[in-house]
Task: structure prediction
Amino acid sequence: MIEKAWGRPIDALETLAVRRPVKDPLLRSAMHIRSSLVVSNNAVAVHQDRLHALTRPGHVPAFYDLERITSSAVDLRVAQAESRIALQAISHVIEAREAAVTADRAPSLSLAQAAVARSAHAPRALGQPPAQPAPSAAVRPTVATTGPGR
Result:
């Protein structure tokens, strides 16, 4: 998701985030959240392995294993929730980056729209009544056709 948004591989983005954190603070935030996502994903894997080991087929858990099973299941749910939150945070950072890029383009877009609006109010040609628009420079004169009714 991060590679797609910035258009570079993760390794290159990591070095950019470390070398120039002020130049792209959103990249630095995304990479920081990504590192916490890696940690929480590793925690998910550890808790899943522990839970699978405690509840493997053919194994009857002892009474004291029930608390370990319950705590492993709770830890797994917490780690999964942390992973989902980190993914959401990364998507929010990417959305903020896209909004910032769009906002940077917005002034030029609004200037272009203002120029088009001003061109509609351009002064009219001499001798032309105000109700008729000035002819376009790209319009060619039409050739009158001769025919029976004309």
